[in-house]
Amino acid sequence: MSYQFGWVNEDGREQTSNGFPLVHGELCMEVAKALSARREVALSHAAAIELSHKFWQVHVDVADGNPDRNGRPSVWWTWGPAQAINAGDGMHAMARLALFKLRDLGVHSEQIAASVGVLDAAIVLLCEGEYLEISFQERPVVAIDNYLEMAERRSGALMGCASRLGVRAAQLDDSIIGDGLQAFGSHLGLVRHIVDDYALFWGLGERDQTQQGRLQSKKKTLPVVHALTHGGATTKRRIGEIYMKRILEPTDADHLSELLDEAGSRQFTLDTANRFHSKASQALIDLGLNDSGSGLKSALGELAEVPKS
After folding, report:
1. Domain 20-303 falls in which CATH fold?
2. Burial (Cβ within 10 Å: 0-12, 13-18, ≥19) of residue 199
């Protein structure tokens, strides 16, 4: 578990680095800070969402066969899939325990139960998103709206949960502000997903092992979904021929990039990312949390930056 967080190496020895980015926990803390939550209470909520994200990463690496995570061997590649699943399940349990420890901070049982419910609901959405993504691999064509629904669940569920747990940490009635901040986080997560799709074909430098794994597993991406929906007959046929291969090679990804450019999928992907970025920004405006002092406006810029071209 500590290895997955980047705190130790394969031998269990402490790393000199500060570990890996804790994006979901940081977002939870920013929301909690904006709403004047107690720091100790906020930290428990942030720990819960970050443990959930890390457990999911471990399981996804096993499912996708990713040999690398954050620039070094993934947990399953180091210790095998059985131990990786074991570690991931352990982190899932620890996420809930982090919330139950709120009793030691004087938080009422009803409020703790509500926070646990928010977390569990997000995990269910996440699982549904993963189910949809896997099922899309077998479909020749996927509707763009269906793809975005999948991406919002798979990548937006935990970010939306991180925001809502920040509200829960402030122990506020979250029926209104909670909905708004959950939408903010969900849109933010969707932007990150779309930008990752974009970087798969038009990123800077060589693709890392995680990106290679996504390509080799033939998972649908927004540019591909767009091209298969709006591209010409020749473009669709050539993309279909690539995805019919048993194993995709790096040259296939380069060829795909050219075909996607021809279909206008590159600009469509950027436009879609910017559209949901604007929705996230509008959610903050509607809640009166768009001033730079809240930290959430900065978080939107840092966590969901959209490439210019």
Report:
1. Farnesyl Diphosphate Synthase (1.10.600)
2. middle
